[in-house]
Every structure is written in structure tokens, then in C-alpha cells.
Write a structure and sequence with these properties.
Helices cover 38% and strands 19% of the residues. With 656 residues, it is an alpha/beta fold. The structure holds FE2/S2 (inorganic) cluster.
């Protein structure tokens, strides 16, 4: 190997993305100077009447388009990077090149754009989700009005958000300046010039920017996972037309990298992107590369596609079926005809932004995996923000954030074949995963019998009654049901009252050899405890008993107590005292601090936080919600995080 080749290899091995996000970004400074010179030339030419207004309109559109990249880079702090004396100049560049946008103050844009990065493709919190939709036409109507939608969000959903409200003063100053310019120009008789060279170009450039920065890189705007929520699309020379935005993965994974370095970083991390199933496409698959899918064709963007089972999707509601007066069944659309894959008994988390906070809860799936549909059951809970919304306000066509599948409460028809009897014991809405298991067992295990014991307050509280009846018609020999109601009803001759040991033993006795059966239990804690102790008294082996667990209570403090400071995504801060045997989420919930969470057991990843200071450990070794690479990068899960020293935590993932 000659010395030159060897030196190149060493350089390639030691370079990483951070080498492209340091020092003054002279490429962006040059672009800024070019745009300013362009504006001076344009205004002079229009004033001297040596340029027609249509030509001026075209040039102004180009300048707004180019100027946006400077403002965008300034918003990310990518012109000065770590060079502090450059920071005021960076802000000056950002402010001056958002003036032509007329309604988009730089300070507000920078903050609201951070939300696009933090919540990419989330229907409620991604401000750029406005430019979504499956068709070019729909996106085309929305792209030119993206800035208006920012203002609408500022006045509505983000109206009390301290991160946004802190920009109001500078926004007022901006509007005073732009309004003065507009009034001054109209007053001086330049109204037509203002329209042709000032206002129309904003909408034309906004259209191009909305398409290039939002719709094209993120469509079909259904994936929220970090490697799938955007795409890279390759074609020679494309980076010059899009100012690098065709490598949108790089911008989202490493927002501190300057735009003219995207291609270099893309080449550097391409193996990682491919390993993580990131959508990488080309404009014309047959002419440029047969190996890459054509533009918009990568299944990694179109379907539930991820590594490590960590799907996070934005899904439309396909149907809502009322089950009882207090419960509904919700079915979600498939993506590219594929549903989110799951196993019988598992659950997903659903997130909706309600009353100023992102509320996430776990809901079990009631269909069998072979149904090819993702359907959940939702029981209304008193004072339950999300369950009330899903029961009373949700409409067909609405979008929700759905993540999963999660849970170890799994029925595997292959391993379960050794047991001839499957006993399913459900209380109330605990029937939801149990129904999925019953459907799967009856369809997949043609030999075994299934006995469902289903406890409810009263007959009108029975969820999925029609589906249970259909199963008993379809499998009369293999499927038996025992209902028990707390309240007696006229005409009801079956069991009444609370499920207790004696009643349960009687119910189990309709099948011989209960010790060989497998038992799946889901319902209120009090019922689960009775069922488990009864089964233990019957000497049922623990490996035959499966229990659905969703929650954990807070243990009494033991060991050293540490200060834990928390910064939530909306900017609010809290200080908590957390003992070494407690998790941050346990104490936060107790103290009313609303850290977004769902499963509480380290599986869903909803409570992910960045540790910026201090040492912590995870309560469990099994945390599929946190990948090993994420641990290395200093991320933790609030529901599993136990402090070993004073800690500082920030909600979400801080982009490097
Ligand atoms: S709440 Fe699910 S991982 Fe923490």
C-alpha cells in the first residue's frame, strides 16, 4: 500500500460528522453576501427601470429561495458554530434574510423549526406537517402557505408555550419593520413593484421551499422513527439545485452540519443508514442506479419498516366502532397495504397532544396478527384525558401517533401447541389482548380448546360481545365461555358477584386437568391477584401463567437521595428528589411532573430523556425502548432511570 492511499484511509476512518460542523461556515457566509448583492442589484435595476417586472419577479423568487438557506442555517447556529464573536453576525444574517418573507420573523422561525426536528411527522407537534398528504396536488396547495400555518400554530396550539412566547417581542419589532417598508413603498407609488417583486416571489419561493424541505423529503409523512422519517434521493448535480436538501437524512440526524457538507457526511455514514433501513432513493432507478429504488418508491418510507421492532407511525383512523357506552374499537389504516406487525397479546401506544401536553397511553390490540389490520380497544377512564378524547371526539380520518408493538404478554401458537387447553381470564377491558389471543389460538392451533372466563360489572359492559359470539358459532366444539357479572340481571342464570377463589375453581372445573392448561390473565389488579393466588393454590406451574402488566407503583425511598433537574420539551423545568431505589418517572408522576410516558416498563421508548449531567443506572436489564447505541449517546428512559448522583435530564433526543 503506498503512503498516499494509506493516509487517505486513515483520514476517512477518523473523520466523523462533527468534523463538518465546526468553525465559521464560509460557504454560507459567501451565499449571504451573494444574496445581499443580488438584492442590491435587483432593487437598483427595478428603480432605474432597466429590468422588467416579470424578470424581477423571477430573480426575487430565486433570492428568497437562496436566502432561506442562510436563515435556516443561522436558525440552527450553523454559520458561527462554536465561534462566539460570530454569533451576533449570524443572527444579523438570519434576521436580514427573513425580512423578504414579510411574515416570518427569524426568532419565531428558529424556535418553531426546532419543533419540526424534535417531532418530525407528528400530526400535532410537527409544525411542518401542514405540508403533508399523499398527492403532489394537495401538498402544492399547502406548501406556499406554510409560514401562515406557523402563525396559526403560534396563536393557537403553541400560544402558552414558553419557548414560543419568548420570541413575541422580536416578532413585533420584525412586523414593525416589514410593515413600515410595505406602507412606505405603497405610499411612494411602488405598489405594483411591491406586489411583483416583493409579495408574489414570497409565495413562489415558499412553494419550492415547502416542497423541497418538507413534502419531498418526508412524504408520505407517516414515519416518525429517526432513520425513516425522511429520505435521501440521489442524482448527479441534484445537490446544487436543492442546496443539499436531497441528503435530508443528514440534516435531520446532524442538524449542526452545514448544508454544503451534507453529501460528504452522507457518504461517511451511508453504511449506517443502510443498516437502519433508511429510505435512500434515486430520481430514475433504471438510468442512474438499478440497486436503488426510484424516487418515492423505497418501502422503508412507505411501509412499517424499521430495525429492532421500533415502529413509530402517524396513522389515519380507518373506522371507529362503539362497543359499549364506555368503550370503542379503533382500526387504523394500513400503510402501502401493510399493517404494523405484532403478535397476539401485544399493545401499542397512542399519542395525542391534548390541553397543551402530549398524552401517551397503552392500548392492546384485539385482532389476531393474521387479520392484517391494527385494531385497538379503548375503554373510557374517569378523568382520562386520552380515553375521553378517543371515545368521544375522535373521527374517522383523524391522525394519531401510534408506536409499537410492545409487550411480553404474547401468545405464540407454535410453542403453545403442547397444551391442549388454553384458559383466558379477562376482566372488563382486559378482554382486548385476550380476544386477540383467543382468535389466534382458535385459528392457528386446530387441536386445542379455548376457555374464556370473562368478568364484568354488568351485561351492558361486555366489550366485543358480537365478536365473541361469532367465535363461539365458528368453533362450537373448541371454544367455551363463562361470564360473571357483579350485578344480577333479570333472565341471567349464570355466575354473579365478584370473581373469587371458590367461583374460579368451579369455573375451571368444567375442563379436566387444569394443571396442563396455559393461563393468560388480563384485568384489574385486584382480579389478577385473586386469579394468580388461586392458580398457585391449584399448583399450576408459574411457567403456565401469563399476566399482562402495565403499571408500576412508587416504592418508599431507600438509599441516597439525589437532586434530579428536568427540562421538558415546552421549556418548563423541575427539581425532584429521587432516591436510588426509585425511578425518575415514579417520582415525577407522584409530584405531578408530566414526563410523556406510556408503558412504564422500558419498552415503548416514550419517556426517552437525554442525560446532560450526572450518573444513572437502568432499573432493568431488559429495555427494548432504549437501544444500546442510544445508551452510549447518553440517553435514558425516565421510567427506568435510577439516579446514582445528581442528574440533569432533558426531554427527548438532543440532536448532535
Ligand atoms: S414509558 Fe415506555 S419506555 Fe418508559
Amino acid at each position: 500500500m503506498n503512503a498516499k492511499v494509506s493516509a487517505t484511509m486513515i483520514t476517512q476512518q477518523t473523520m466523523d460528522w462533527s468534523d463538518y460542523s465546526t468553525g465559521i461556515a464560509w460557504g454560507t457566509v459567501t451565499l449571504f453576501i451573494g444574496v445581499i448583492v443580488g438584492y442590491i442589484g435587483l432593487i437598483t435595476a427595478i428603480y432605474m427601470q432597466v429590468m422588467s417586472l416579470p424578470v424581477g419577479m423571477f430573480i426575487a423568487t430565486l433570492l428568497v429561495y437562496l436566502g432561506f438557506t442562510v436563515a435556516h442555517e443561522a436558525g440552527h447556529g450553523n454559520i458561527a458554530h462554536e465561534v462566539t464573536w460570530m454569533k451576533p453576525l449570524e443572527r444579523f444574517m438570519g434576521w436580514s434574510l427573513t425580512i423578504p418573507f414579510l411574515i416570518l420573523p427569524f426568532g419565531l422561525f428558529a424556535k418553531i423549526h426546532d419543533y419540526h426536528h424534535a417531532f418530525t411527522n407528528e400530526p400535532d407537534r410537527d409544525p411542518d406537517h401542514w405540508v403533508s398528504g399523499n398527492t403532489w396536488l394537495k401538498a402544492s396547495f399547502r406548501a406556499p402557505t406554510l409560514a401562515l400555518s406557523y402563525l396559526y400554530l403560534t396563536a393557537t396550539r403553541f400560544k402558552d408555550d414558553p419557548v414560543i412566547t419568548q420570541t413575541h417581542k422580536s416578532s413585533l419589532a420584525y412586523y414593525a419593520v416589514t410593515l413600515s417598508i410595505i406602507v412606505g413603498l405603497i405610499w411612494s407609488g411602488y405598489g405594483l413593484e411591491l406586489l411583483m417583486v416583493g409579495i408574489i416571489p414570497v409565495f413562489l419561493a415558499s412553494y419550492v421551499l415547502g416542497m423541497l424541505f418538507d413534502w419531498i423529503p418526508h412524504k408520505p409523512t407517516r414515519q416518525q422513527s429517526r432513520y425513516q422519517n425522511t429520505r435521501s434521493y440521489l442524482f448527479p448535480g441534484l445537490k446544487y439545485l436543492t442546496l443539499g436538501q436531497n441528503y435530508h437524512h443528514i440534516h435531520h440526524l446532524y442538524p449542526r452540519v452545514s448544508w454544503y457538507n451534507y453529501e460528504r457526511v452522507f457518504n461517511l455514514i451511508r453504511p449506517e443508514l443502510e443498516a437502519k433501513n433508511a429510505p435512500i432513493e434515486t430520481l430514475f432507478s433504471n438510468t442512474f442506479s438499478k440497486k436503488l429504488p426510484g424516487f418515492g418508491k423505497s418501502i422503508n418510507a412507505l411501509e412499517p419498516s424499521s430495525v429492532d421492532g421500533a415502529h413509530k407511525l402517524t396513522l389515519h383512523v380507518e373506522s371507529i366502532q362503539r362497543e359499549t357506552s364506555e368503550s370503542v374499537a379503533i382500526t387504523f389504516e394500513n400503510l402501502n397495504e401493510k399493517n404494523l406487525p405484532f403478535k397476539a397479546g401485544q399493545y401499542v401506544t397512542v399519542t395525542k397532544y391534548l390541553n397543551g401536553e402530549a398524552v401517551t397511553r397503552c392500548y392492546s390490540i384485539f385482532e389476531s396478527p393474521s387479520a392484517g389490520k391494527l385494531s385497538i380497544g379503548v375503554k373510557w377512564v374517569k378523568n382520562g384525558l386520552l380515553s375521553s378524547y378517543l371515545n368521544n371526539e375522535l373521527a374517522v380520518g383523524d391522525e394519531l401517533t401510534v408506536a409499537g408493538p410492545f409487550g411480553h404478554f404474547i401468545y405464540d401458537p407454535v410453542t403453545a401447541k403442547t397444551s391442549k387447553l388454553l384458559t383466558l381470564i379477562a376482566g372488563g377491558s382486559g378482554i382486548t389482548p385476550i380476544l386477540s389471543i383467543a382468535k389466534t389460538a382458535l385459528a392457528m392451533n386446530s387441536e386445542g380448546e379455548v376457555h374464556l372466563i370473562y368478568a364484568n360489572r354488568s351485561i351492558i359492559d361486555v366489550m366485543f360481545l358480537r365478536q365473541i359470539n361469532e367465535l363461539s358459532f365458528e368453533y362450537p366444539e373448541r371454544f367455551s365461555i363463562t361470564y360473571i357479572y357483579q350485578k344480577n340481571h333479570t333472565g341471567w342464570n349464570g355466575e354473579t358477584g365478584y370473581l373469587n377463589e371458590e367461583k374460579l375453581i368451579n369455573m375451571l372445573a368444567i375442563h379436566s386437568e387444569p394443571e396442563d392448561a396455559q393461563y393468560y390473565i388480563c384485568g384489574p389488579d385486584i382480579m389478577k391477584n385473586i386469579v394468580v393466588s388461586t392458580l398457585q393454590n391449584l399448583n399450576i406451574r408459574s411457567e403456565h401463567i401469563f399476566i399482562e402488566e402495565f403499571s408500576q407503583s412508587t416504592p418508599k425511598p431507600e438509599g441516597s437521595i439525589h437532586k434530579v433537574s428536568i427540562v421538558l420539551a415546552n421549556g418548563s423545568t423541575y427539581d425532584l428528589d429521587v432516591a436510588e431505589n426509585q425511578t425518575v418517572l415514579q417520582v415525577a408522576t407522584q409530584e405531578g411532573v408530566k414526563i410523556p410516558h406510556a408503558c412504564g416498563v422500558g419498552q415503548c421508548g416514550c419517556c426517552m430523556m437525554q442525560v446532560t449531567e450526572g450518573v444513572s443506572e437502568l432499573a432493568s436489564d431488559e429495555t427494548p425502548g432504549l437501544l444500546p447505541g442510544e445508551q452510549v449517546r447518553g440517553l435514558t428512559l425516565a421510567c427506568q432511570c435510577r439516579p446514582k448522583s445528581a442528574l440533569s435530564l432533558i426531554e427527548g433526543v438532543i440532536n448532535e
